[in-house]
Design brief:
By secondary structure, the chain is an alpha+beta fold. It is 51% helix and 15% strand.
Length: 368
């Protein structure tokens, strides 16, 4: 039911705006519509204003949105997986009342501020600091490549509270993105997903209330890693959406485009490309659903999430490449959506853990 509802919404509201969104227009009306449908807090418990859905339903929704618009799916996943989820899991009742309900109801947008110029794959190498000062937390530093950073009203922020303890001295904080000292910096011009902002955040003596810690002091690294585990399942579903859109567009085009007196879908060279794309979509979907079901059952899913994200993102990259090739010269033109997915697919191999790092995660899980 969730999948069908989201698919219908995307066909009516998201697909017609996808090209404009990719050119850099934030899809505010679409996000508001998603809020009215309960999608902006899909897995948030109902008592906090959410839909109370499970991880499988969430990932199916991600796939549908991704197949309609790469930018919108990125906004959606960063908000749900990276902001609402850690608030649900680690937030206290006061934080949930103040921050989670507006997020779940679509009245506010969330961002996840972990990455820094010198702390990407090495997430523990944070330069941003938080220290107690006059009964408050004082935060200084900057973050880079923060999805939704330009529009966010709530920020999940990670900072070093005790450098002598390395990764055990990192705190997770929930911050009002309109607080004094919270400054939005440069927005990047990206290869793809142009409608999703990706910007620097600067903290210049930003004061946070004493109860701003998410979880316990020193628990920040755990919050970040467990949040990213769940986020990677969403990225896998997003990549499947990209690959599926490429397959569907290629099947349609191959049935209409003729060469040598027959549709190109009758040429073996094209048939094999379509077959490989379909195999990748089906296999990647099974992997992300397996990881989501393990999460839903309360079983360990770190390795399964990493596997799903690596396989699905690689499949999306191959599918988008083959889709452009099937479309020939038309595939290189912005009039055809496969060009958009070709540019978007690449980032799924990079964000929320590069595929190189995630292969290490899988290997460690195998070699214990």
């Amino acid at each position: 039911m969730v999948r069908d509802m989201v698919r219908g919404f995307c066909r009516r509201e998201v697909v017609p705006r996808a090209a404009e969104t990719d050119r850099g227009k934030f899809p505010a009306e679409v996000i508001q519509g998603m809020g009215r449908l309960g999608l902006m807090g899909l897995c948030v418990p109902k008592e906090h204003g959410g839909g109370g859905a499970d991880p499988v339903a969430y990932t199916l929704a991600v796939e549908e949105i991704a197949a309609a618009c790469p930018s919108t799916s990125t906004i959606f996943t960063a908000h749900n997986s990276l902001t609402c989820e850690p608030l649900c899991k680690y937030g206290n009742e006061g934080q949930k009342r103040e921050f989670l309900r507006p997020l779940a109801e679509g009245r506010s947008l969330g961002c996840f501020a972990l990455t820094e110029p010198g702390a990407g794959s090495d997430a523990a190498a944070l330069a941003t600091s938080a220290r107690r000062s006059g009964g408050h937390w004082r935060v200084d530093g900057m973050k880079r490549f923060i999805t939704n950073g330009n529009e966010a009203g709530v920020c999940i922020l990670f900072a070093a509270t005790d450098r002598s303890r390395a990764h055990k001295g990192i705190g997770a904080f929930v911050a009002d993105a309109h607080a004094p000292g919270f400054e939005r910096g440069k927005c990047e011009e990206k290869m793809g997903i142009g409608g999703s902002s990706c910007c620097d955040l600067h903290f210049r003596g930003m004061e946070l209330p004493p109860d701003s810690l998410l979880g316990e002091e020193g628990q920040g690294f755990e919050v970040a890693m467990k949040t990213l585990d769940g986020g990677r399942i969403g990225v896998a579903a997003q990549a499947v959406g990209f690959a599926r859109a490429c397959l569907e567009a290629s099947l349609s085009y191959a049935g209409e485009r003729t060469t040598f007196g027959r549709p190109i879908s009758e040429h073996q060279a094209i048939q094999w490309k379509l077959a490989d794309m379909a195999i990748g979509v089906e296999a990647a979907r099974l992997l992300y659903i397996k990881a989501a079901r393990r999460k839903m059952a309360g079983l360990p899913y770190t390795v399964e999430a990493a596997m799903a994200k690596v396989f699905a993102s690689d499949a999306a990259q191959r599918a988008s490449d083959q889709a452009v090739q099937i479309h020939g010269g038309n595939g290189y033109m912005k009039d055809y959506p496969v060009e958009r997915y070709y540019r978007a697919a690449k980032v799924t191999q990079i964000y929320e853990g590069t595929n190189e790092i995630l292969r290490q995660v899988v290997a460690r899980g195998l070699c214990r």
